Amino acid sequence: MAPPPLLVRRLVLAPLVVLLAIVVVPTTLMFALVVGAALTWVLPGRLRVVRALWMLAFYIVWDAAALVALFGLWVASGFGLAMRQPWCRRAHVALMRRMLALFFWQARWTLRLRIIADVGDGTGADDVPLPDAPLVVVSRHAGPGDSFILVNWLLAEHDRVPAIVLKDTLQWDPAIDVLLHRLPSAFVTPARRRRPGQPSTRETIARVAADMGPQDALVLFHEGGNVTPRRRTARIAALRDGGQEALAVRAKAMPNVMAPHAGGFATALDAAPQASVLVVAHTGLERLVTLKDIWRELPMDKTITLGGWLTSSGDLPPDGVSRAAWLFDQWAGVDAWITAQNRQLEPEA
Fold first, then answer.
1. Taking a C-beta distance cutoff of 8 angstroms, is the pair 75, 91 a contact?
2. Which UniProt keywords apply (predicted)?
């Protein structure tokens, strides 16, 4: 569903979230927890109702706290006049880092999540430092919250400022909407809803990539959405319909991922030729496709593993055709990495 206009988001949605946090959550949370605890004795699972209600209440309060802090930064910037100043951007990045750290502290405690990450260079070397240059991050997209995990990892572990290109529907979340409009990120409208004159996805990627500094990281999810069997089948069919039978065969041979869209990736490298590329794979959330799946898995008790490999700008292919082939090769590596991770978990299961 398309997000409402800007004024509605700022004057209705944002105050509504703060009102919920102030009035509704404190007055209903205790009642909900008591009822949830009682229902938990009837419904299967380990305190599923209580955990779900707690995380919902926490997220509302978390979102409202971020909105209040963002309003304070707007006032401190001279009611928006100094919003583009370096000190103001640093303040917004620091706020994002603290809010994500708080969110994952709570998620680890409530959902019993464990997150581990490792970056290599594709040759077996581990813990490779990221270069002092712009970074294009291409990541698998599977499971709820994987984008939050990736952004938090870039901020907390590598001190990178994420520049995210994401769907406009995420503007329904007021805190995400306000914060990312003040950072080097952008929301894109799907082609079916795009009005004449609105920038395309590639144009948006080019603009964001061209403005990247040495500590920025452009985050792209080239599969176009969370991996599901239906989407994966449709993507293979689209390749065949487009006369790309060889790529369709390769995509069918990768059971864990969807075939990547290479256009945005090539556009990013054209706009930021000095950028290195970090390919990110992860596993642990792919079974969580529907709300029913998430409910069944609560508490998740999961280890989420991130693996990445870095390619410097000098080792990247020079043109669009070779970049598309290179990206498919990387996705084959992502698929193989996921298969290997799942095999390691089989004995434990």
1. no
2. Acyltransferase, Membrane, Transferase, Transmembrane, Transmembrane helix
Residues 6 or more apart whose CB falls under 8 angstroms from that of 203 comprise none
Please, are residues 306 and 137 in contact by the beta-carbon 8 Å criterion? Answer: no
> How buried is 1 (Cβ within 10 angstroms: 0-12 exposed, 13-18 middle, 19+ buried)?
exposed
Tokens read off for 89 = 């951007």
Tell me what percent of the residues of the chain surpass a pLDDT of 70: 87
Residue pair 37/49 in contact (Cβ under 8 Å)? The answer is yes
C-alpha span between 257 and 216 (Å, rounded): 26
Query: What count of other Cβ atoms lies within 10 Å of the Cβ of residue 333?
Result: 16
Could you tell me the CA-to-CA distances from 111 to 4, 143, 233 in Å, in that order? 32, 15, 31
User: How does pLDDT run across 259-300, given as a tens digit for each residue?
Assistant: 888 888 999 999 999 999 999 998 877 777 677 777 677 666
Can you list the positions of beta strands (E) in 48-149?
A: 113-120, 135-139
Nearest to 112 by CA among 42, 46, 211, 185: 46
- Torsion angle (degrees, nearest 10) of CA 118, 124, 127, 133: -100
- Residues 327, 321: Cα–Cα separation, whole Å: 10
pTM of the model: 0.85
Sequence-separated contacts (24+) of 187-194 with Cβ below 8 Å: 189/2, 193/2
Q: Give residue 64's pLDDT band: very low, low, confident or very high (50, 70, 90).
A: very high
CA distances from 129 to 92, 101, 148, 154, 339 (A): 25, 22, 22, 12, 26
Q: With contact defined as beta carbons under 8 Å apart, do 40 and 49 qualify? A: yes
Alpha helices per DSSP H over 211-262? 229-241, 245-252
Q: What does the mean pLDDT of the chain come to?
A: 85
